[in-house]
Amino acid sequence: MCHMTVGTLVLLRHGESEWNAKNLFTGWVDVDLTAKGEAEARRGGELLREHGLLPDVVHTSVLRRAIRTSELALHAADRHWIAVRRSWRLNERHYGALQGKNKKQTLETYGEEQFMLWRRSYDTPPPPIDDNDEWSQVGDPRYATLPPELMPRTECLKDVVARMLPYWYDEIVPDLLAGRTVLVAAHGNSLRALVKHLDGVSDEAIAKLNIPTGIPLRYDLDAELRPVTAGGTYLDPAAAAEAAAAVANQGR
Ligand SMILES: O=C(O)[C@@H](CO)OP(=O)(O)O
Fold first, then answer.
1. Which of 98, 115, 240, 242 has its CB surrounded by the most CB atoms within 10 Å?
2. What is the atom index within ligand 1 of the atom nearest the CA of 20?
3. Record's SUPFAM superfamilies (predicted)?
4. What residue segments make up the domains of the chain, in order of their start?
5. Rounded Cα distance, 111 and 113, in Å
């Protein structure tokens, strides 16, 4: 008899970034972590170590807040030496013309309904960013090999699901099927896209789901890659609930 071993998936949103702290829409803008964000990343790594949840491989976006979070967390867990893979497909949702804009001012200017449509609706993207905008990523060398028609100027969550899933199936799933413990260090909305897929969250319900910074979320998957526990398990559930509520309230 052949038993397929399925590994464990651990999702980690980067720690607080400079633009999280300033309450600015960030998207693909490559901002760094704050000192608080660095401490959150280290704490995330300590949680991994305390729970004996030691990654064999890490997948990150190509943005420094996720890369640095993974490095700080893995250092704290004594797993700094594991294999690393990165992809733009794990990047934060491209926030279009909202990149660099203040969330509170945007809420005041456009009103609650439009603000939440842009932030959390499944299929309404913000207006596209102009290629000459100071926060455009056109010309950024890290995307030089990206086919031009794949380079986003804005994205809704549905677009993120569509561009993230090829990476999930082609790069992450094989690691899981090989029985590995897989850490995915990414972003609020790219992880919402992955959670939506894993848990089969409806287009409506995903609007209410927020991912806190720096707290590992564990998913044990069955042989069909379905979560054994719906929604996964945060390694620090109380801190996760409080931090997710704070994300939901941004802009207010
Ligand atoms: O600004 C962003 O890129 C994201 C994540 O910080 O914000 P929001 O939670 O509003 O989608």
1. 98
2. 6
3. Phosphoglycerate mutase-like
4. 11-248
5. 6
User: What ipTM describes this predicted complex?
Assistant: 0.95
Q: Residue 162: which H helix or E strand, with range?
A: helix 157-167
Which residues have CB under 6 Å of ligand 1? 20, 25-27, 92, 95, 119, 188-189, 247, 250
CATH superfamily of 11-248: Phosphoglycerate mutase-like (3.40.50.1240)
CA dihedral sign of residues 95, 144, 182, 197: positive
- Per DSSP, the residues of 188-242 read HHHHHHHHHHHHT--TTGGGG----TT--EEEEB-TTS-BSSTT-EESSHHHHHH
